[in-house]
Amino acid sequence: MLDFWQQLPYYINPVIFEIAGFSIKWYGVMYLVGLATVYLLLLYRFKKDKLPYSKEKIIDALPWVFLGLLIGARLGYFLFYNLDFILKDPSEIINPLVFNENGYFLGCSRGGLHGMSYHGGLLGAILAFSFYVKVKKISFWKTLDFIIPAIPLGYFWGRIGNFLNGELYGRVTESAIGMHFSDWFHYSGWKTVTLYHPSQLYEAFFEGIVLFLILWFLRNRIKTSGIIFSLYLLGYGTFRFFIEFFRQPDEHLGLIWGGLSLGQLLCLGMILVGIFIAI
Question: In 95-126, which positions are buried (b, 16+ CB within 10 angstroms) versus exposed (e)?
Fold first, then answer.
């Protein structure tokens, strides 16, 4: 059983199916599952919590937020983690596909469609949401607090997508909980003998399930506008900060300052912003 756990990534194909060079991956599907999860949880809130909000206005905000999330996550990946690369070829942001001289699709370039940043996605989603509530003339803080408790469970599926994609795994470990990860085993058959922390699963559990349970429990118990959102920032920032000690830093960045990764520094910023909003 232990051996199966450690070799589990070898049995997972990140590609669901492929047609004419275009592939559908579990990673992208998990984003859609996450969005559907948030949508269903909000419908539940409208039915059970009986809050005085317009159902249509709240639900109509989701496509805006999702679009802002995707754009922000894509831009944030290059701005935070790969700025030098994007300065050389800005077209990578919107056109990461590679074709040969005959027009046959070869795959993704170095940035790839997988290049996404959580912190960039959060900023993009908040900006899109701010624009939406201003147009619709509804309360920013009250509406945000209504939506936020559902977000961590949607995020859970995003981290499961990272795991199924065999990416963003953790640092080397000798612990039995470690797994064998490799970017190439699905194509070459080569297997690693090194164990790595499955940090995607750590994040899915703590930043997804645990944070969701906390916010969902408090959703109707805290009446002050903005506090639920501040708790989200504090909770995610704290969980992610400590999990980053088990997560493999980006190879081209390494540890930035004081033995901390860029992700940890961004999380410290989240924590400070959460404290500021609460105050």
Answer: ebeeeeeeeeeeeebebeebbbbbbbbbbbbb
Residue 89: CB partners within 8 Å, gap ≥ 6? none
Confidence of residue 105 (pLDDT cuts 50, 70, 90): very low
> Which amino acid would we find at residue 193?
V
Tokens representing residue 24 in the block: 């559908």
pTM recorded for the entire structure? 0.80
- The contacts of residue 5 (CB under 8 Å, 6+ apart) are 177, 179
d(CA 259, CA 255): 6
- Given a contact cutoff of 8 angstroms between Cβ atoms, the answer to whether 49 and 217 are in contact is no
Cβ atoms of 105 and 22 closer than 8 Å: yes
Helix (H) or strand (E) holding 132: helix 118-136
Q: What is the DSSP string of 171-199?
A: -B--STT-B---SSHHHH-------B--H
